[in-house]
Amino acid sequence: MANKISLTNDYPVIKNSDQLYNRALGLIPSVTQTLAKGPGQWVKGVAPKYLVKGKGSHVWDADGNEYIDYMMAVGPLSLGYAYPKVDEAIKKQLEDGITFSMMHPLEVEVAELISGIIPNAEAVRYSKTGADATSAAVRLARAYTGKNKILCCGYHGWHDWYIAVTARNLGIPEAVQAISFTFNYNDIDSVKNSIDDDVAAVILEPVVFQEPKNNFLQKLAELCEQKNVVLIFDEMWTGFRMAVGGAQEYFGITPDLATYSKAVANGMPISILTGKRKIMNLANEDIFFYTTFGGEALSLAAVKATIDELREKNVPKYLNEQGKKLKDGYNSIAQKLGMDYTKAIGYNWRSMAAFDEKAGDPLVQKSLMQQEMIKRGVLWQGFHNMSFSHSDADADYTLQALEESLSVLKKAVDENKLKEMLRGEPVQPVFRKVDNFNMKPVKK
Ligand SMILES: Cc1ncc(COP(=O)(O)O)c(C=O)c1O
Questions:
Q1: Which residues contact 440 (CB under 8 A, 6 or more apart)?
Q2: Cα-based distances in Å from 118 to 140, 146, 238
Q3: Which residues have a Cβ under 8 Å from the Cβ of 216 and sit 6 or more positions away?
Q4: How far is the CA of 433 from the centre of ligand 1 (A)?
Q5: Can you give the pLDDT at residue 220?
Q6: pTM of the predicted model as reported, rounded to 2 decimal places
Q7: Which of 33, 165, 236, 264 to mutate to test the pocket of ligand 1 (most atoms within 8 A of CB)?
Q8: Burial of 23 (C-beta count, 10 Å sphere; 0-12/13-18/19+)
Q9: Burial status of residue 81 (CB atoms within 10 A of its CB: 0-12, 13-18, 19 or more)
Q10: pLDDT < 50 positions in the chain
Q11: What are the structural domains of the chain?
């Protein structure tokens, strides 16, 4: 029988998941289309690999096991799986058509809606993926400034200009690698040292897990203005989640360009580029940014319904409150158990459990926690990606599961049995790096 969410479960049976995985091996390179959803981020041998259904904050895997989900599709499900108001909007639009031979009125309606919410949205464009939007922003910045180099911080998608800064840069021309660099978050000097006459744009996620310190974002905006560098906020995570108007609204800082996706459409594939008219106007005729599905109507209908609900229910406030229970709860359990080597860090709406190597390999600690949470019916990668569907009952249950799983981790650490108690292969490091890699050599 498939597992329900219960503290007394055995480890789930994952036979169907494994069968699907074996069919995919050799046919689908890397097996997954999204690294964070792929098998490398889940304990092989214990975690399911395929999900077939979701409702609210709960999901069911290919073997029928039920879990509370804290990944929420790696961010998009701000309201929850199969959220009625959004699904009704999608179904209603489906009756009239998905994509058309001419523009659709929703393109205008949604642009008007967004321009009333996002502070820098003097102009609005749509595309399908986050990488489309960040790459369009980078192209606009180069066109506007007549310069080439890009300084970035965070993860910005799979396209050449960004992947050039990572270790996985095979296939990217050296000429591109020579003009993309990173800087360190909260380190204004690392930006100052890297800005030269050829820097077109600074792009960053306004926050990841650290809070900005010493007016970092403000100083960055001033520096970019002084140096004629386009400031781009990549708000894929912060947008429509940290506040409905994202980090721009939350911090009161208006970047030249900003990019959105994930939370804005509750799971439908759409990305949004907003920005100051003087730069965005280059997309009238000068730069090329067009794609067949750019105005696809189901996603636009989903955006409209999602934004209505985010505003009406003040969802960012709820995510913050519900997430605080988990973040604070995690930390008070760890403290009570005397585990000074693990801590939940970050913002309440997306906190992350961090593990110190003084207690053993952090990836093995995280894997053991994941194994024990999955056993108890919680799909957990160390993140608490909150949605409007995570109920009080979910939070209470999750805290119990965390308490039991942290106790298992403590025992493993105390008895030096971390690897022994892990029943599968540990998870791999996450791809995204934020600090101290591929910095631009300091100017002479
Ligand atoms: C901050 C940020 N920027 C850009 C992207 C790329 O978005 P996509 O995977 O939709 O291309 C992501 C994806 O996770 C992201 O988190």
A1: 149, 151, 181, 182, 183, 193, 194
A2: 19, 27, 12
A3: 185, 186, 188
A4: 13
A5: 98
A6: 0.96
A7: 236
A8: exposed
A9: buried
A10: 442-444
A11: 15-69+315-421 (3.90.1150.10), 84-312 (3.40.640.10)
